[in-house]
């Protein structure tokens, strides 16, 4: 007595890799289309696709590579036809930022099937829609926009092809949240027990759908990242600096010229698939300076016990510095929430800004002071600066009760504008970070990726610190020198003064030179 086979069992018996007519989507495309061209990048994607569908090591794949190099033709057009030619029971879904883009692939695949009987795929006669059609064996292709979602039968193969339309959407937290909500509530819930998933996209932003999948589902995804210009450990085996062989037959030097004419922010995300710019965006890593701890001066009897730091060959006694804390507050423990960040700073006698320490955590409001207090006690900080909107929170009340002065900062401008004084100080080599701190990489990565980073709470504390130092430090000079400098204030001083006014809520006529620490 014969037993009816499930579609999965039927496929396992009849469509094993050893009986595939074409070993890969690229081999099929080459056989059917004389104009089709394979490159080293497309060969690698072919191997990854075969491993995904015929292997048992992983069932989820992400592919990142430069635009217009054939990844969508390979994955959204050729791969569904290749799969259905060997298993016409498969239920495949293609999802893109817009329904008409996804439907374009459905229309093209249907044309390929009708033009090539050798694929041996038979479509149902009543199945004519570009975005939804079925095979005689019960398989189907569904093409939808990410806002529409997937309904109906479970999905055996899910292809996500560019969930965001471009830079504007990628920079919008609303669109990034939309894509993640779709994955959590729709995309991942429609997968069958034999499902395979492919996500391919241009990495516009480190907090895009791929970025969140990488962070929140670690170990679940096989990730293939192919840059236009090779770096160390290149997946194609290229030498560092070697350009990508282009499917468009671009002239040698094409990508290198783009690198020279595009900002690092744009080139690294779109062409290198690394949305955290290696050298930084507004804050350049090459401008970062690092202080090192020196042996304490045992003869010194200050509150910090003679602690000294080395600023590039200059010894600075921390007791000679004015110390303060800037805080960027959040009030939630949710894993997707912003961080509460408290940074302890010192202003050297020469006016350098020294980051002494920082604490970061996702906290409830009642926990804020316990988060800040250790920094204040360790570094004997004089004042805590927080945004005006938080001046009545538990942190301000508890700090005041402990006898610690709390000063408000008014954020009247956008984050990028507020950061400009800080970027200028960093560029001038007047900001120092603690070498060897276990959180230093996290700090530097956030600065380098600003303003495209998923979070900017640490940057905010630096921005505020830069404004504080502009208002609270003056070089040692005679009264005659002060009067002379008053008469010839440089434009840069005006900019800093205006920035401080915007940050603290001070008047436009704030006289910075009348303030000392």
From TrEMBL:
Keyword Nucleus: no
The entry's keywords: Viral release from host cell
Domain Terminase large subunit gp17-like C-terminal span(s) in chain numbering: 325-465
Phylogenetic placement of the source organism: Bacteria, Bacillati, Actinomycetota, Actinomycetes, Streptosporangiales
InterPro entries: Phage_terminase_lsu-like_C (IPR006517), Terminase_6C (IPR035421)
Protein's organism: Nonomuraea bangladeshensis
This protein's record includes keyword Electron transport: no
Protein name as catalogued: Phage terminase large subunit
Pfam families attached to this UniProt entry: Terminase_6C, Terminase_6N
